[in-house]
Structures are given as structure tokens and as C-alpha cells.
Fold this protein.
Amino acid sequence: MNLLCVGTSYRTADVATLERLVFTPAQQEAVLQELVRQPYVGEAVVVSTCNRVEVYAAVTGFHGGLGDICSVLAEHSGIGGNTLAAHLYVHYDEAAVRHAFRVSAGLESMVVGEAQILGQLRDAYHQATEADTAGRLLHELMQQTLRVGKRAHAETGIDKAGQSVVSAALDVAASHIGDLTGRPALVIGAGAMGALSVATLTRAGVGPLTITNRGAERASRLAEAYGATAVPYADLAGALAEAEVVVSATASAGPVLDRALLAAAAPLVVLDLAVPRDVAPDVTGIDGVTVIDIEGLADSRRALPAAAETAAVEQIVAAEVEHFLAWLRGADIAPTVAALRTRADDVVAGELRKLHARRPEFTEEQRADVSRTLHRVVQQLLHSPTVRVRQLAAEPGGDQYATLLRELFDLDVPLATQADAVPEIGGNA
């Protein structure tokens, strides 16, 4: 099995394209199952956020796996293959590992260093685990990806530029209307992004805060946790009229804020952090209403962290990539060594059967002595070369040793056996 990452993000696609590709939780589970039904895809994890959609897969071939993943994405989004291809990036094996680690460390985020991506990666991994589409290879990749992200944030100052996209959005809002401290704000949506928005607004001194959500109980719990006020979703128009800053972050399939609602609530700054967008496309040119969405935020990104912090994270990523690749190379040799030992045991067993047929006068004790002696000789002969070949296989270019062993000893190591025999490397996230 090989690793393949196929994705798109705010770097390669506009919001309209991302809106068509983004998955709801229900869609994500269905797509996971569809992916692993493809002939070249054995495992799959899907990451779907407001500014990236990525498929991490264990595949039996690059071109076949790429074709399978692209066809599933095209079918889901309704975007033609050629059009979709123009927005995709592809990473294979080492490059896929490096990309995953960079994503978790915040190096690929719209706000470099933001930590929210760690939670999003964890959610994607858990969903794949529950759907039983993450096998041994992706389990290890995702666990190590989460660990690398935690290490980057713990050991460097990469997150000094800001904790989240919400923080960046507030900076852009402040550039339009000045200091946000003490300004009344409304948060629409009480999911993960809504909760992050409430926390960020509270830290920034924005408020009083009002929260509304289609599920009233969730809004009430979130409001209670932050000393905010929950209002029924049916009173959205009234809540808008009382606010100067609105953060909308729902999981709605269509717009929740239309032209009439916003025109009646002006003046207003609306931070639309949802994908698909919560603000209707025709909301433009309304006097006193400023809308900042993910696309606008990408054009007004905050300053990058200091070069020293970025370089420190890059060093962590490089070291962790090599660590993972060493394990990956060792994973290929393990079933081959096991097959070699099995072949040796089979040869010993065959010779013992012949000996016992020729020498029926041997007692059980004599037979046991001969058997132990033969097995010890074979194990001693195999010990040093198998230990050494494991060491060599973990080094760059070591993948050739498994192939050489299989050819030299004519070993039959089924692909499924090789995938199932992946050893642990530890460090659960």
C-alpha cells in the first residue's frame, strides 16, 4: 500500500468551488464508504473544513488511486473532471506524509500557526475510524500527524500570529470599523466554529454576546458557558438589529442571511465563516453592511510568524517525516522476514519428517533433541542477517531489501499480508 493525498484548499480554489466540494458529516461518511469501494483504494480519511477538502488514502497504485479519488470527488461535487483537476493538488508517499504534517502544524493554514486544524484533523480521523475506513497505515499516519501538530505548538511560537481564522477575521473587521471592544455581537451557529467564535470574541472583549442556533439547547449551553445570551432562531431578525458585529458559522446547506435581513439591520459587519456561505450571493452594495467571507479573508491574511518560528517548525516536520518514512520502509521488510523464517521452519519440518521415516528406531526424546538442534542452527544462521536487513531497510533506499529477499529466496508474500503486518511506532495522539 502507498499513501496518496488529493485535495484542494483556499490556495487552489475559490469559495464557490470549495462550497461544492465541502462535505456535511452525513455526506462525509457516505463518501468514505464510496472511496473504499473503489478498486485501488484500501483505506480513506476525508478532511473537510471551511477552507480545505482533502482525501488521504492508502492505495495499491498511484494512477489507479488518483483516478478513483478524483471520480468520487467529481461525482460528489458535480464538477467535471478537467475543471476539478485544475483546483487539485496531489501528494504521494513521502510528499503526502510531509503535507499531512505541515497541515497539522498550521503551516498550510490561512492563518499560519492556527491550532483549530488539529481539532478538525482529529474529527476527520475519528469519523474514518467509526466508518471503519482507516486501516493500519492511515491509523499510524493520522496518529503521528496529530502528534506532530501538538509538538509544533508546544515547542515553538508558531501560533503567535493568531489562534484561529476567527481571530484573523476580527482583525479584518477592526480595520473596517475600528476597535471592536464593547461592541454588541451576534454569533449564528453553535457548532465547533460557533463555539470557537464565541471564545475568541470573549477574549477580544467584544460584547455583549448573543447566540442563536437552530437547535436551541445547544445555543443555551454555549451561552451559559461564556456568560452570553441565547435567543430563539425565530428571533434572528431582532438579534441582528441589536448587533454591530455578526459571526455566522452554521452548517446550513444554503444561505441563512439574505439581502432583506441585512438591509434592515444596518449598520453591520458580518463575518461569514461558513462553507457553504451563510450570506446570500446577492448581498452587495447595501449601505452600512460589510461582509467578510473566507475568500476575502484569504486576500487579507495576517502577517506570518517570525521566520525563526517557521524554520523551527519546518525542522520538526522534516525530522518527523524521516522518522515516519523509516518506519514505513521497515514495514515492508517485516512480512518478508516473517516469510523467510516460515520458509526455514517448513524446510526443517520437512527434513525431520524424512529423518523419522528413515530412522523409525529413534525414541521421542531423540527426535526432540534432533528437532531442537536443527531449529537452533537455523535460527542462529538467520538471526544476524534478519536483524541487519531490518536496519538497512529503515535507511533511505531501504525498500529494495524486501524485494531482494523475496527474489533470492523465492518468497511469496501476499500484498494483504504486507499491509496487515505493519508494526507499531507508538505515540498515540
User: Anything to note?
Assistant: The longest helix spans residues 307-358. The first strand starts at residue 2 and ends at 9.
